[in-house]
Design brief:
Layout (H helix, E strand, L loop, with lengths): L2 H23 L7 E5 L2 E3 L3 E7 L6 E8 L2 E9 L6 E6 L7 E8 L3 E9 L24 H33 L1
Parallel strand pairs: 2-8
Antiparallel strand pairs: 1-3, 3-6, 4-5, 4-7, 7-8
Helix pairs in contact: 1-2
Length: 174
């Protein structure tokens, strides 16, 4: 095996590791999550939303989803340990009901809370039950397998191109 082919093979393997390892480094596993304190509060109050087990130094869009309403909050950035804590003031015009905080990044993490309408406001029934539902996305073994197969095919094609280039180079030198 020529030194150029060996260097190309080593470079291909290194490239595969550089591209694939970050995808497996953080899988959004069971340790990932968000929580809100307090979980039951009155509209207009301040709460603390915290996240742990997340990808370090990543941005998360924060939303509060409730009956027929989505309240976007400013995005937060996780620290080097994959954590964040942010103090949020809940709008005082929200009706009573069950709401869901979302931290949206590579995946959607959720936690529920109960809001009581501020004094003088009525407790509204949700008009659309599906507005409060959030489907979290996690990587399945099938998705990871497909990515692995695609990386393997790309690596094989790259090595094939290097071998063919070596042969053409040898023919040109003759």
């Amino acid at each position: 095996m020529s030194s150029r082919l060996l260097r190309a093979a080593v470079a291909s393997v290194v490239l595969v590791f550089v591209l694939v390892l970050p995808a497996f480094a953080h899988s959004g596993g069971e340790a990932s999550g968000i929580s809100v304190e307090p979980a039951d509060f009155t509209a207009g109050e301040t709460v603390v939303l915290a996240g742990t087990g997340l990808e370090p130094n990543s941005n998360r869009q924060i939303n509060l989803v409730g009956p027929d309403v989505v309240v976007p909050f400013p995005a937060v950035t996780t620290d080097a340990d994959g954590m964040f804590a942010v103090t949020l003031t809940i709008p005082d015009h929200l009706p009573s009901g069950t709401y869901t905080f979302q931290a949206i990044g590579d995946e959607v993490l959720t936690t529920e809370c109960t809001i009581t309408a501020a004094s003088g406001l009525f407790a509204a029934e949700p008009k659309n039950d599906s507005a409060a539902l959030v489907t979290a996305h996690s990587r399945s073994s099938v998705e990871i397998g497909i990515v692995g197969i695609l990386v393997g095919v790309a690596t094989g094609l790259g090595l094939l191109l290097v071998v063919r280039a070596e042969r053409v180079g040898r023919l040109g030198q003759s």
